[in-house]
Specification:
Helices cover 39% and strands 13% of the residues. The chain has 345 residues and is α/β, with parallel strands linked by helices. It has one domain: Histone deacetylase domain (Arginase, Chain A, 3-Layer(aba) Sandwich). Helix 5 packs across helix 6, helix 8 packs parallel to helix 11 and helix 9 packs parallel to helix 10. The longest helix is centred in the N-terminal third of the chain and has 20 residues.
């Protein structure tokens, strides 16, 4: 049986942001943890560089040109939080290429699952705006590639980064071809992701925002995955699930106040992995945030261990939290999905 594939590239380390929360030590910490665990059985591959045509399915050419030219000129700040250096454009292009490759590997059946481990992250990047440490929206580029090149009709993106993925939310706001689901702390940067934002036009009902209050821990996050996300997977029947895997909901993270543990991330991974396995749905992950570097390394390893071994958790084994009950009631009222009240998964 083919091994799961972990995609990475040295360019992630060359994107040198200095004394910044989104720094090269994030990748170093993950690498050290994986090495300490013997690699967890994942095959390592270098990520290809995305080409401009692949990126421009999501970002306009003028924006891509601006990023390239700014980096070629030595870099600078794109906003108060987001900076680039000469090497940042290549890092971003390999990040997009890694996400695309992860999607291709699982859709084509060449790997049981795949994970793209790159920085900078991507989910805050809007079509023509960098923000929140993000330059290119890697998961959105991979999802659009799956639609346009791999011929898929339905892709589900689950974003469990503690910050709302405003870029992904907005890129797919008006389409029913991508179901975007986000669990995130609120109020918190970037201030988007209201539960009332459910998409527009043809995309009405295909944006599902699940904000949680600060201090929420494993019980709330895992319940939302078990009792909202898993039924959504059953109802939407995606042909690919992509996880925007941020780890800044961890209790140790300095940029938020949620209290998720490594075991909480592992349980979420096992719930999603089980839902996909039962339906034969390809699954891939894309690294987003996570700024307590030791906790990041342990959390990524916990997720890769569950996905790599195929370990699953049944939704019925996760207690129903009040946040999940309220989310179910709200989504049922607006008709987003119809399987509520039936056994999940």
């Amino acid at each position: 049986m083919a091994a799961p594939v972990l995609l990475s590239h040295p360019s992630s380390l060359a994107h040198d942001t200095g004394a910044h929360p989104e720094r090269a030590e994030r990748i170093v910490a993950i690498e050290r943890e994986l090495e300490a665990r013997g690699g967890l059985g994942w095959e390592r591959r270098l990520s290809p560089r995305a080409d401009e045509a692949q990126v421009e399915r999501v970002h306009p050419p003028s924006y891509v040109d601006m990023l390239r030219d700014l980096c070629a000129a030595g870099g600078g700040h794109l906003d108060a939080d987001t900076l680039v250096v000469t090497e940042s454009f290549e890092a971003a292009m390999h990040g997009a290429g890694g996400a695309i490759a992860a999607a291709e590997l699982v859709v084509r059946g060449e790997a049981p699952c795949a994970f793209s481990m790159h920085r900078p992250p991507g989910h805050h990047a809007e079509m023509a705006r960098a923000m929140g440490f993000c330059l290119l929206n890697n998961v959105a580029i991979a999802a659009q590639h799956a639609r346009d090149v791999l011929g898929l009709e339905r892709v589900l993106i689950l974003d469990w980064d503690v910050h709302h993925g405003n870029g992904t939310n907005d890129i797919f706001h008006a389409t029913d071809e991508i179901l975007f689901v986000s669990i995130h702390e609120s109020p918190l940067y970037p201030g988007t992701g209201s539960m009332h934002d459910v998409g527009t036009g043809a995309g009405a009902g295909y944006t599902v925002n699940l904000p949680v209050p600060g201090g929420s821990g494993d019980d709330a996050w895992t319940s939302l995955v078990a009792h909202v996300v898993v039924p959504l997977i059953a109802d939407y029947e995606p042909q690919l699930v992509l996880v925007s895997a941020g780890f800044d909901a961890h209790a140790d993270d300095p940029l938020a106040s949620c209290r998720v543990t490594e075991e909480g991330f592992a349980t979420m991974a096992a719930l999603v992995g089980g839902a996909c396995a039962r339906r034969g749905i390809p699954l891939a992950g894309v690294l987003e945030g996570g700024y307590a570097v030791r906790a990041l390394g342990r959390s990524v390893a916990a997720v890769l261990e569950r996905w790599g071994t195929g370990a699953t958790v049944a939704p019925g084994d996760v207690p129903v939290h009040g946040l999940a009950l309220r989310a179910q009631e709200r989504l049922a009222k607006v008709g987003i999905f119809t399987t509520l009240g039936q056994p999940a998964g």
